[in-house]
């Protein structure tokens, strides 16, 4: 047998009714007064929808009638009701439907509804949109408005600002919105003036010195806002000044450390002063050695005869060269030999490139930190690498806090700032981890391209001899560009002139050309467009 259904009363005193989880957040005073006048004249005609909650009943739909009834009848007054057993989700859907049908809800109420539906659907946007009966465009716009502070939401509900104002403020970090609202209201700024105001405090992404890959999907990117709102700042701007500044400062720190590492590498690679030789003298020595090798050699000379015709058996003095090292058996120049001489520079440059990539990509930084922690290498980050920047990353007072206060400060960090801190930790690991193999593995996994931040320049070429410069010119395509005879003529000039000629050859662009001495696998890296053409060649052949 089926259990008997509960017979609920059709009227209840207002004292037994409580507010439910109504998505409506703002009740217009004028409309409330109109509702009160109607209740005084006709009573409450449409029953209030309730659901049981212990000894009382919670409102699902009809809170405006409930409020008007309290004002007219008091807590003891009885009103018509409909009572139903409902789940939280069913009650939410019924409340939203009732608000949409009876009175256009405010944009902020719709924003809150979008957030609650998305949570109820476990993040499934398509299902949330289906249940709400909205277009995807409307859902995305309203969801973006959920970023508004409560003060700004109230100002929009009360129509002290327009929707255009709210859309502009939704693109500003929450901790800045209230101050901006105060300025808008005090100065009486219209939407266009507000846009101009925000343009003055935004940062142009085109001038950013950090990796902007993460910015393409950031809600504070004006290009992203343009896709959502009719009212937005111009494309290519960041509206989160604090985040922009932090990334820029982190990039500047990385750049400074890169220069320090490069300078140190250059000093280490430079030979002692007494062993430095002029490259033209080197060439002359090589020619002398070559011509000497072409003649037969003996332990004794054959021309030193004394007047008696007796052979002088005194060993001939050896040819005195400019250096004590033998240049007769010079090792062959190849990518491996150049890489050996460039090891410190290559390592420093790749560490910096990986650090920059991690500073700009929170997901990759998180992976790096987790792998470092689980592999026991996270402790290799030098203590002062992060502590020296704690005031910048967390707050000026952070270094002076005791440990418990530091815990509280970290917990209180806004999500965006916490993400930035994690990115800086990942970047610090890239610079400090002992094994360069770890750096190389991370760079390969995250597809870090050194060509995005480094290119052949004068300081790089100056560390090599003419023979090594010829190898670099060969593998990078410069010799093929100018021709072998032309380049042979260039080799006849002094090394500084040769380097200037290599770097400024008309029609030849060094951008994107990565010598094998600087790559992780010892293989020359051609420019991206050339690599793309080479990758497409097999496909074209198959198509043919």
Task: Describe what this molecule looks like in 3D.
There is one protein chain. The chain is mainly alpha-helical. The chain folds into 4 domains: 7-105, Alpha-Beta Complex (Conserved hypothetical protein from pyrococcus furiosus pfu- 392566-001, ParB domain); 147-239, no CATH class; 340-452, no CATH class; 458-543, no CATH class. The protein has helices spanning 29-42, 63-73, 88-102, 107-120, 125-132, 136-145, 150-157, 163-169, 174-187, 191-201, 222-228, 241-269, 279-293, 335-341, 343-359, 362-374, 383-387, 390-393, 403-411, 415-432, 436-445, 458-461, 466-475, 478-482, 484-491, 495-503, 528-543; strands at residues 11-13, 17-18, 48-53, 56-61, 78-83, 203-204, 237-238. The strands form 2 sheets. The protein has a 5-stranded mixed β-sheet. Strand 3 (48-53) and strand 4 (56-61) form a beta hairpin. The chain is elongated.
CA radius of gyration is: 38 Å
- What's the number of extended β-strand segments? 7
Fraction of helical residues: 40-55%
Low-confidence stretches: 227-233, 273-329, 530-544
Number of helices: 27
What is the terminal separation in angstroms?
76 Å
Quaternary organisation of the protein chains: single chain
Question: What proportion of the residues form beta strands (DSSP E)?
Answer: under 5%
Give the CA-based shape.
Answer: elongated
Strand order, largest beta sheet: 1-5-3-4-2
Structural class: mainly alpha
The biggest sheet, with number of strands, parallel, antiparallel or mixed sense and barrel status, is: 5 strands, mixed
Mean of the pLDDT scores? 74
Overall domain count:
4
């Amino acid at each position: 047998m089926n259990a008997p259904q509960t017979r609920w009363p059709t009227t209840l005193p207002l004292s037994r009714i409580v507010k439910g989880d109504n998505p409506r957040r703002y009740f217009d005073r004028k409309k409330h007064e109109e509702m009160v006048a109607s209740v005084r004249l006709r009573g409450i005609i449409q029953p209030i929808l309730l659901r049981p909650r212990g000894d009382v009943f919670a409102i699902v739909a009809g809170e405006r009638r409930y409020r008007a009834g309290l004002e007219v009848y008091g807590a003891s007054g009885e009103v018509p009701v409909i009572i139903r057993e409902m789940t939280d989700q069913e009650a939410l859907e019924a409340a939203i439907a009732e608000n949409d049908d009876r009175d256009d809800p405010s944009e902020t109420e719709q924003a809150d509804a979008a957030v609650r539906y998305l949570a109820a659907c476990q993040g499934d946007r398509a299902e949330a949109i289906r249940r709400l009966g909205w277009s995807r465009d409307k859902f995305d716009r309203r969801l973006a408005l959920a970023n508004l502070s409560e003060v700004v939401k109230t100002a929009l509900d009360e129509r002290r600002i327009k929707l255009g104002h709210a859309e502009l403020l939704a693109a500003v970090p929450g901790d800045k919105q209230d101050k901006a609202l105060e300025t808008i209201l005090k100065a009486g700024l219209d939407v266009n003036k507000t846009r101009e105001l925000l343009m003055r405090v935004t940062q142009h992404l085109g001038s950013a010195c950090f990796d902007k890959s993460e910015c393409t999907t950031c809600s504070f990117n004006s290009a992203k806002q343009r896709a959502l709102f009719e009212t937005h700042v111009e494309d290519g701007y960041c509206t989160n000044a604090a985040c922009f500044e932090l990334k820029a400062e982190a990039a500047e720190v990385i750049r400074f450390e890169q220069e320090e590492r490069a300078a140190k590498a250059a000093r280490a690679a430079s030979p002692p002063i007494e062993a430095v030789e002029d490259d033209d003298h080197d060439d002359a020595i090589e020619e002398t050695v070559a011509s000497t090798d072409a003649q037969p050699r003996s332990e004794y000379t054959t021309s030193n005869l004394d007047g008696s015709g007796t052979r002088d058996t005194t060993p001939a003095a050896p040819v005195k060269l400019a250096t004590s090292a033998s240049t007769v058996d010079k090792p062959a120049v190849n990518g491996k030999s150049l890489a050996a001489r460039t090891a410190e520079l290559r390592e420093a440059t790749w560490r910096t490139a990986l650090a920059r990539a991690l500073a700009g990509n929170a997901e990759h930084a998180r992976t790096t930190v987790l792998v470092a922690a689980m592999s026991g290498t996270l402790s290799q980050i030098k203590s002062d690498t992060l502590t020296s920047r704690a005031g910048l990353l967390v707050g000026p007072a952070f270094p002076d806090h005791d440990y418990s206060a530091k815990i509280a400060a970290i917990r209180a960090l806004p999500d965006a700032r916490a993400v930035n801190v994690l990115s800086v930790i990942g970047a610090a690991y890239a610079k400090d981890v002992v094994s360069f193999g770890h750096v190389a593995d991370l760079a390969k996994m995250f597809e870090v391209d050194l060509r995005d931040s480094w290119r052949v320049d004068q300081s790089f070429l100056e560390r090599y001899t003419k023979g090594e410069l010829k190898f670099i010119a060969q593998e990078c395509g410069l010799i093929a560009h100018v021709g072998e005879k032309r380049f042979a003529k260039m080799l006849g000039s002094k090394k500084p002139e040769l380097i200037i000629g290599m770097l400024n050859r008309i029609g030849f662009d060094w951008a994107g050309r990565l010598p094998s001495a600087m790559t992780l696998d010892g293989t020359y890296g051609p420019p991206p467009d050339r690599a793309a053409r080479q990758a497409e060649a097999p496909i074209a052949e198959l198509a043919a």
